[in-house]
Amino acid sequence: MKNRVSSYGGYTAIGLDFGTREARAQLRGLDGKLLGEAVFSYPHGVMSDRLPDGTTLRPGDALQHPQDYIDALHTLIPALLQSGDPNRVVGVGVDFTQCTMMPVGEDGAPLCQTEQFANQPMAYAKLWRHHSAQPQADRMTQVAQQRGEMFLAYCGESVYAESMFPKILETFKRAPKLYQAADAFVELADWIPWYLTGERRRSRSIAGCAALWDPTAEYPSFDYLESVAPGFGSALDKLRGPLVAVGRSIGGLLPERAAQLGLPAGIPVAAGLGDCQAAFLGVGLYQPGVLLSVMGTSSCDMVIHSERIAIPGMYGISSDSMIPGYYGYEAGQATMGDLFRWFSEQWVPKEIEDAAKVRGETVFDFLNHRIAARQPAAGGLLALDWWCGNRTVLLDTDLSGLLVGMTMNTTCEDVYQALMQSLAFGKRRIVEQFQNYGIPVARMRVTGGVAEKNPVLMQVFADVLKMPVEVSDEANGSCNGSCIYGALAGSGFPNMELAAAAMGGGVSRVYYPTPDRGRMYDRLYELYCQLHDAFGTETSIMKQLKTMQAEEGKK
Prior knowledge:
Blueprint: E1 12-18, E2 22-29, E3 34-41, E4 63-64, H1 66-80, E5 89-96, E6 101-104, E7 125-126, H2 134-147, H3 164-174, H4 176-181, E8 184-187, H5 188-197, E9 202-203, H6 204-210, H7 222-228, E10 243-244, E11 249-252, H8 255-261, E12 268-270, E13 273-274, H9 275-282, E14 290-295, E15 299-305, E16 316-319, E17 327-333, H10 337-346, H11 350-358, H12 363-371, E18 382-384, E19 402-404, H13 412-436, E20 443-447, H14 449-453, H15 455-465, E21 469-472, H16 477-489, H17 496-503, E22 507-511, H18 515-535, H19 541-554
Parallel strand pairs: 1-5, 5-13, 9-10, 14-20, 20-21
Antiparallel strand pairs: 1-2, 2-3, 4-7, 6-8, 11-12, 14-15, 15-17, 16-17, 18-19, 21-22
Helix pairs in contact: 2-3, 2-7, 9-16, 11-12, 13-15, 16-17
């Protein structure tokens, strides 16, 4: 735990963190002290069944309404300023789930808010976990392989459906009138700074992590995109705008926005970041060898390295995406907190809910007490953690979850334990992929609500990974990271290293591996890998079931 000593003259920075279901804002002193915090839940939530007007959505759709983001801004910042002097704010930082994107007009206005496209699903913000673009991702991968495109080496040998180009291609194919009307397709991490400053610029980090941008070759070529689909080369024009490095200012706060939000006009707004990239500085990391895992709705894993190494299954390898002079490597699991949410809603019987209430505990605290001393294989179950597809190392959103070993004696506790272990096994698969290709990982630092709330899960991670698991004292490393990048944009620090030392988080608790449990986990992990390889194929039964489900949905 860091001891915060103020020596920065009372100056502050604002961080804005836009998550899957809510937005969070923090006001921090440049010594890192948290002065104010506010949370805003999106009224429209995640739209996966229908639009506000009742328009039915397809399986795999995950959309959001951009008005929720605007309302969040205009609610959160005034709330923060009750805890500090607006004239002492040096800068504003922004992070967003990635890749969450939408089409806009020339002035940046969302097209879903026009009468013409209000009932067109493709006009809304496509959330990071919008998986309906998997066919487009498959097409892009196929053509890239045929052409020998160099970018494949640095996006895991496969174009990922959650990234920018497949989502644009989906709109190009499914909603051509909308595509033509769109002046730009923009990541929300870029759109929020645009909204605040009026400056149409893009984050270099975002472009590298989610849009296949490379400092040498830039975006994928016009010829390649035309080979994917005639006319699709026009997408490059819809991604125009100068790129801005991390920690640099996009521009100053517009007078109109300043008056609405209660801030002075001209305050620098930093180039946006993905929520996971922002968390790296936010938890106090500035060095290689440590895997950062941001555990929220999903899990995003970040590590930095001085060299650029092509690693199969790593969907993001980009230069200077978090720390200047280093390549950022991005991996992750498509579900984490969402998996436990699903479990609590679908599997927990009423008697356990009632028993937890009697003890004044959450369902998870109650179950943790019951399984903490269990042996790893006590439930006789094994799971694949693919409820929202596999992000790393298979890069396939069409895969789905699996539970093996259920009998008439299987209990809620058995399933809970198996789901925990599946997440740890999936994380070990990621860590081993890094290590096998020369990226050292000696320990893992974790931030996010899951890490803070579930000590039993953290111990399982330590036992399965066979390495220390450090829980950051910053429960929301992303939001703190945005504060730091906001401070950098406002010249609060001369460099990132000093900023991380002053404002970055520390460690609240360390979980160490238990050797006697590790041996049994090794045996279970071998079985997990067998399931992983058997079901993670192009002809997987999981994919056939999804196809049948989609066909039934059309009837």
